[in-house]
Design brief:
Layout: H1 3-6, E1 16-20, H2 25-36, E2 40-45, H3 48-60, E3 65-69, H4 75-85, E4 93-96, H5 112-139, E5 143-148, H6 161-180, E6 186-193, H7 201-205, H8 210-216, H9 226-237, E7 247-250, E8 255-257, E9 260-261
Parallel strand pairs: 1-2, 1-4, 2-3, 4-5, 5-6, 6-7
Antiparallel strand pairs: 8-9
Helix pairs in contact: 2-9, 4-5, 5-6
Bound molecules: 2-hydroxyethylsulfonic acid.
Amino acid sequence: MSPSTERSADRSAAPTAVVTGASSGIGAATARRLAAEGYRTVLTARRAERIEALAAELTAAGHQALAHVLDVTDRPAVDAFADRLGPLAPGSVLVNNAGGALGLDPVATGDPADWRAMYEVNVLGVLNVTQALLPALVASGDGTVLVLTSTAGHGTYEGGAGYVAAKHGAHVLAETLRLEVCGQPVRVVEIAPGMVRTEEFSLTRFRGDAERADAVYAGVAEPLTAEDVADTVAWAVTRPPHVNVDLLVVRPRAQASNTKVHRER
Ligand code: 8X3
């Protein structure tokens, strides 16, 4: 972002959608979709090449898009990012998407380092970016904080405790924030997707073990796609400002609960 561009946001400008974790999967699909909806997108993630390529793609398609390298767990970097972003136009949105799972270990043997890392990104990452951008979203007169949690934020499953605990934390953050900002011009929306097949979620969880990652989706006719989730984000944030979609749980038809999945063999 050039300083002149960053400071140009004003109340007559297009609303901004800041998307964390925009380098792949749900984040990238959401950035594409919100750009198509007319938002000026600000793409953040740790991997510069990916978000720069996506910003270039969106710009070439006639959209306003900027890339800003950001690790949501790095609070000074998040604060510096918020400062450079400056004021936001009404209708602007923060999409807290960055997050992820590490391992599928039972409580008895789970690695505390994995639990800590998952709490850092899924909870403190959301906290950092939300705290940093909340003043500008409120000052815009019509802002939205959206948190992409998970069905893991609403029920547990064996081996999932570290991730489930973190996503419950993100859910509680969103639910509590909604209470606390009630009366101010900002909505707090939570979207909780179930089984979504993306290029990286399960591969990251199983540390590059493609066989274990593929097994998650084995026999499932149609897991959700990143675009399916982006569609729900776009729907939720484009409702009229007085309409707050508190919580939207979305799963593929083949998944009735966290532990009930229909697999065709
Ligand atoms: C991902 C859903 O079932 O892997 O957020 O926890 S699950």
